[in-house]
Amino acid sequence: MAQTTTRLIERKSRGASTIGRRSDSPRANTGCGHVIGVDIGGSNLRIALADTKGTVLSKWSSSTRKGASPEMAIEQICAGTKYLLRDTSVPRRSLLAVAAGCPGVTDGDAGVVVATSYLRGWRDVPLRSMLESAFRIPAAVENDVRLGAIGENWKGAARGVRDFVFLAIGTGIAAGIFVNGKLMRGMHFTAGEVGYMHVPGTPEQPAKQGEPGSLESIIGGEGIRQQWLRCCNSTGDPQIRDLTATEIFEHARAGDALAQTVLNRSAQVLAYAVYNISLVLNCALFVLGGGVGMSAPLLDATRRVLEQYNAPAQPKLMMSSLGPDAQLVGAIRLALNQAESRRCET
Amino acid sequence: MAGVEIGPDSLDFLLADLNGRELGRSRIALERRSSTPPAVCAQIGKQVRGLLRKQKWPEDRLLGLVVGVPAIVNVDEGVVVAFSALKDWSNVSLGVMLAREVKCDVTVENDTNLAAQGEYHHGAAQGEGNFVYITIGEGVGAGMFVGGTLHRGAQWSAGEIGYLRVPNISREHPAIHKHGKLEKALGSAGILKSWRASSQAARTSVKVNRAADIFDLATAGNARARRVLKQRATILADVVVDLALILNPSVILLGGEVGNHPALLQEVATLLKGSEFGVVRVGLSALGSSAVLWGAIYTALDPAILGLLQPSESAG
What we know:
The structure holds two protein chains of two kinds.
Chain A: H1 2-16, E1 34-40, E2 44-51, E3 56-63, H2 70-88, E4 95-102, E5 105-107, E6 112-115, E7 123-125, H3 127-135, E8 139-143, H4 144-155, E9 164-169, E10 173-179, E11 182-184, H5 216-219, H6 221-234, H7 245-253, H8 257-281, E12 285-289, H9 290-293, H10 296-307, E13 316-319, H11 326-345
Parallel strand pairs in A: 1-4, 4-8, 9-12, 12-13
Antiparallel strand pairs in A: 1-2, 2-3, 5-6, 6-7, 9-10, 10-11
Chain B: E1 2-6, E2 10-16, E3 22-29, H1 37-54, E4 64-69, E5 72-74, E6 79-82, H2 94-99, E7 105-110, H3 111-122, E8 131-136, E9 140-146, E10 149-151, H4 167-172, H5 174-179, H6 182-186, H7 188-202, H8 211-219, H9 223-247, E11 251-255, H10 256-259, H11 262-272, E12 281-284, H12 291-301, H13 303-306, H14 311-315
Parallel strand pairs in B: 1-4, 4-7, 8-11, 11-12
Antiparallel strand pairs in B: 1-2, 2-3, 5-6, 8-9, 9-10
Helix pairs in contact in B: 3-12, 7-9, 8-9, 9-11
């Protein structure tokens, strides 16, 4: 496996040189330059070009094909970057660094995507060196939810907060945790993989590889949809309405009793998860992000449940202010950090 | 260096030198009702002076006193925020009160945090920068190291896992779950209560004094004791998984009178076998009932506390 990957990188690095040839090293002065932030998701790949202040000049996105290989992702990133540079008339030599976020276990130190269930066949992918070969500039990689936390800490709802949890709820659930102003990664880079947590109301059988975790199976996007379909079936509702989690919660807000049942149950389980994480870490702030996490009715209902608990310390629940851009903003910050640290080295 | 552990029923003392060598130990019983903060402080002062006299040391030879309390503690200010086992112990400036008793620096710290310090410096977590120490005795709590330092939390209450909501509590103890007290089920009182209920139902009685005795019986093959043990292990396994998922530590150590029992560890390890997520090594505390006291000594040995590292003053 490792050998195959190496060979592929070699080939890729030759291929990449046709896209952008660079002879000089990155500009020593990060004051005038640009960085690339990338968010590789299970269904979309998004890229942003930003200046050194972090102002996004232009964005590009494309759908990721099912089973897209790391090499294909690199090709997409190169193509997207080319478009962004043309769109903004930024010269390629102005690029200082690139950073990418991936779903799954990511070793940020080694720059390797260890394992992910969202991208088929991605195992021990040396994404950082692949990016460095393709772009010939410093690169960095990190877990996407941790990038979301970095983004919220830099320009979002947790700006300047040293201790907080960014809880991303979409198809899956994971947390990016800041402790003492630092991102917590854990021993094997799996800190915050809370989608597998056991709380009252979640299945007690441990999840198998490739299946959603017990918490995800209830309050992940698909889990909520399944709850809803079961509710519709059990009440003999004549019209089975196929709705997304967010739509279900909006129906609840509009007064639909069945949707309210699903909302209340989801809020209860989410409150348990938030409560447990806050007991362990004693974190004062939780920022909810992700497609499901950004639902206002869910936030309100969860707050109401949490208020009933007499915890030693009550956590404050907020909605992400960067929304779907949290990861991209985090990637830009990481790229800027990378550019700055390389500048210090030289 | 002196370490003190304030328990609900006793005060434990350990005197050690700068090399961390034990010089003396003592224990005195506490009367719960009369254990007001001033009374406990006076007892600590008297006992520490007694230990020093035994070594034929003047009082000023004591360089640091570190006190562990089973409560949420604001370490910066030496304030015990909340302590449910004893009366009149909310928002007590214990550090200030104790400083009147001894002629040295005083540090007040949560007892489980001290136990984690003890295991880190002197026990089963040496060299582990990311680990969790879970204590299960009368109460349930956790002390954790994140990135090589003790993590205390925004309001000093990190690791208050006695209130965690896990699935098996709600199934087997719906009433307890309502009060949100994991520790009522997992702690020694809950275990003894289950045992008595089970004995009554079976119309037999085997005399036990401590919760750990029931786990001994389970090891010896007593079926009822095994059931009690299994229930606790199931709850604890969920707690371990949740901690592992949140923190991804290298090891989770079990300590305290109930937690440090090998039968419980074995049962938890069996339950965790085969799960693919939240995988973590689980082990026993190496210091057992001395973990808090040794943690206190090693906290006192911290050069910052001793004032040995004040370059700005000495250099100027």
